[in-house]
Each structure stands twice: as C-alpha cells, then as structure tokens.
Amino acid sequence: IPLQVLTLPTSPYPDQRPGTNGLKKKTHVFQSKKNYLHNFIQCIFSSIDLRDRQGSTMVVGGDGRYFNSTVIQVIVQMAAANGVGRVVIGQNGIMSTPAVSCVIRKSKAIGGIILTASHNPGGPDGDFGIKFNTANGGPAPEAVTNKIFQLSRTIEEFAICPELRVDLGTIGKQSFDLENKFKPFTVEIVDPVESYANSLRNIFDFAVLKELLSGDNHIQIRLDAMHGVTGPYVKKILCEELGSPANSAINCVPLENFGGRHPDPNLIYASDLVETMKSGQYDFGAAFDGDGDRNMILGKHGFFVNPSDSVAVLAANIFCIPYFQHTGVRGFARSMPTSAALDMVARATKIQLYETPTGWRFFGSLMDAGRLSLCGEESFGTGSDYIREKDGLWAVLAWLSILAVRRQSVEDIMTDHWRTYGRNYYTRFDYEEVDLDAAVEMMLDLELMISDRAFNGQVFTVGEKKYQVEAADNFEYSDPVDGTISRNQGLRIIFKGGSRIVFRLSGTDSFGATIRLYIDSYEKDINKLFQDPQVVLAELVTIALQLSQIHERTGRRAPTVIT
User: Fold this and answer.
1) Minimal CA–CA distance to 333: which of 325, 321, 345, 320?
2) 171, 200, 321, 339: which is deepest, by most CB within 10 A?
3) What is the C-alpha to C-alpha distance for residues 556 and 563, in angstroms, rounded to an integer?
4) Residues 47, 96, 118, 244: which is the catalytic one?
5) Residue 251 φ then ψ, to 5°
6) Considering only CA atoms, which of 96, 81, 510 is closest in space to residue 294?
7) 386-395 pLDDT per residue, tens
8) Contact at 8 Å (CB) between 404 and 208?
9) Which residues have CB under 8 Å from 426's CB, separation 6+?
10) How many Å is the Cα radius of gyration of the chain?
11) How much is the average pLDDT of 533-556?
12) Annotated catalytic residue 118
C-alpha cells in the first residue's frame, strides 16, 4: 500500500534565522515547541525551486548528538513528501561535516542537511543545530539563509509522510512507494567514512604517512576525538589504514552527550590531551570537535600551535602535500579576525591573499571561482578546495605530511617559521552568554567612538609603549566573485606597525550573546620571538578594555575562555 503524504497546518515562529552555521538552539526548543522542527525543515525544502527538488538527491548526516536519529527520521519523511527522490544517509545517522560536503559533491546532490551544534555541548540540556549545505557542498550563502528565514516567518503548512520509517543501521538501499508518486522514494544508507577516505587517499601520500606512523623510525601520536563524530574516521584511517597503534586514538566512540564534556578542541576543553602531551611521550597530538571540522595541533611536551599559525605553516609548506603539487596554488584566505601570519607567507610567495568575514561560505565562493586553494580561521578551522567545509582530519594529515617530509618536530617547524616570516602574537577573549541588549549597546557605542575622525591618529600610552591608531572601521567585505557586500562584520582598530584590536558579536551560541575580542601583534625581531603571548599582548588588552569598557558594560569581570 503506497504511503500517505499529508499536508498539515502550522504557525510560524519569529526566531528561526540561521546563523553562519545554521540554526542552533537548546535541544528542548526543537523537542518541545509544536512543529518548531518541522517548520524549519519545510523552509529548507521550500527554499529550493520545486523543479530542482523533484527527483533530486539530498545528503543527511549528523555528529551523533542527542536527538540526532529522531530528527533524521523527520527529515526523511519530509524529503519524501517534498519531492526529493533519494536521500543518502551515513550509517546510524553519523557523518562528519567534511564528509557530508564530500558526499554532496560526489553524488551531485542538490544539497545536504547536517545535524550539529558544532563544538557546543550535547544531551537533553545541551544544544542542537540544523545546517543546510548547498550543491557545492558548502554552507548555504546568505541569500539562501535569508530566504529560509523569510519563509519561516510566513509558513502556514508543511508536507510529511508520517508512516515512513527508515532503518538507519543497515547499509544498503531502501525503497518506498508513495501515493501519487510514479517513482519509488529511495533511501541509501552508506558507510560514513569510505567515500571521504577515498578523497583523502587522492590528496595525501598514504605510503609516506604509513611509514611515518608505523615504520622503523615512526613517531608517536595521540589523537582525541572527544566522543564526537571524528572517532570512526580516526580509527579507520589513522589506525587501521596508516598503522598508528589503536591506543593512540582516544574517545573515539561518538556519544549523544560527548561524555558530558564540551567537544571543543582548545586548551581548556581538551586539557586532558594537553596534560598527556606534556609528559613528552608523544611527538604529535591533535583534538577534534563534535562534527569533525575543527582541530587543535600540539607538539611534544604540549607545544601549542595557534590556529592562525597553523594555516600559515601549511601555506609555507604546501608542496609537502601531493594534491597541491598537481593542482598548483590558486590563492590563500583567512577570516578577518584571524591573525595576519598567513599574510606574511602570501607576501613572500607572491600568492593572492583574501581577507573575508567569519563563515566558511565566503571561502566557498572563492573556491568555486577557482581563486582559492587553502584557507583558515582562528577558531581552529582549516581546509582546502577539495570540499567546501573546514576539515579537522584533513588538517592533521596535512601536518603529518609536513613532518614526514621535513623530519623535524612540530616545535622546530614552528620556530623555523617564525624566524623566516616573523611572529604574530595572538589571543582571543570570549565573553559568553552576556545580555544581548548590553552587548549590542556596547558595540554601537564603540563603533561611534572609532568612527569619529579624531580617533584616527590617536596615541595610546601603556607603560613605556605607545600605540598610534592608523585606521579604524566596521569591516565590510565585497565578494570579488559576485560583488555581494557583507557589512558590519566586526570592529577593527589597526595601529601603526600592524597591531590590531578586533571586536565581534558572535551568533553561534544558543543562549545570550558572545562578544569576542581579538588581539594581534606582529614581531619580526628575532630576539623577541619566544615570549609568552599573554605578556606581550597585555598592553593591547589594556587598551581594548579601556576603550570598550567591556567588563563594566557586561558585568563580566573576566572572559569565559582565553585562547
């Protein structure tokens, strides 16, 4: 008997505007508000032209967090009712964000839905997110997310096939006959690792990496998947295929609540890995976030590689990776708040550099136009043009490729880089879950201050050091591909000599606002390359706090996180 397709009435919600990483809310919002989940999914499908939707392929995957499987069943029911012909899903609903991007591109899908709140906590009291990626495999551009939001404000009904049930655990195809449909609706459950692993085999020299990890003079590595989606990928690729010992990878079983921890690969939330690396037992360490797109790199004795430095090192050593030996290098890019370390490499190599707003979709536009090969963000994201998402495991294999060619330690590679290009001392302060009105008012007042003509040229004195303002603005980006202008992307204060203070309101948290303060200071004196960043940057931090009055305006006496 063909399954029934229903059109059910609903009412709109005013708060379904997707951010740079989709719609993130507390899990209970999706669970308890009537049709909240169904509304947003319908708006995703409705944002796609009906002619394009009919008979198309859609990819679905998630990071395995609580509520993941339930939502996938709803997506499949609604995909069938909205004319999609085939849905490709990772086994048990698991598929990393970079793997989804990879599968979208390989299967020529119309897009994909990723269920993740990235590095935010999971569980019934945690966060949940729904993100739409378009046919290029990358996050939906602003025109699409705006359309989804506008649809969400006027939605009156949604289509669903409520009796359709999918077996997520069995690899293979499942077909369903629907009423008034000539062709069966197909669901294909796939190995979430294999297609993605095939792409990596074409990018890196796996024989060289296997020798590095399991040959006669192999290095010792420690990888922490933080109970996120990357665990199965690490086990299959690094351990089973490249020969790293099974005990070199920890926390590799994806858990609905990430083991009760925050799946964020930084010095605070991955502190267990940091402490283990300090023992000196391991030569290389890395941690991954919940959905597998972020990474943290550590060297022996816990040597920390700042993400802004990481992308610069990859750029400087890019031909250690076979993929770029074949394709060449088209361009580099970084997000505006990321340190200017990559700029120094671009300048030395005469390769075009792009400075974009935060959000991977800006990189995707450049990649689609053939202008960009390597990019990164200060928020532990790095990637290349083989997909349209940042990719934690790709970054780790890129670093290991450099280690294999140069036969130096992580610390020696980093210090050689600083001696060659200079060092960008860098830090980021996060003030999380602050009152939204207070945050917005502070940013507006700060913008008013730095927009005053008298602000340019102003000198700030801290101790014996003087900083003169060279420029200040609210960052605006004109996409060189399509001319789209993105305004209000962060407040910048640039001093003579290249030091910068940046303030930005982040929209990635599900409760309250996050104010991010970034401090970047360039040093080329070889005698001053090995100082504590927090000490070096203390004077600029003092200026930033004095200008913004952030502690007084938000009631926070200190940042929640310092990176």
Assistant:
1) 345
2) 339
3) 17
4) 118
5) 55, 45
6) 96
7) 999 999 999 9
8) yes
9) 306, 308, 309, 339, 341, 378, 518, 519, 520, 521, 533, 537
10) 24
11) 94
12) yes
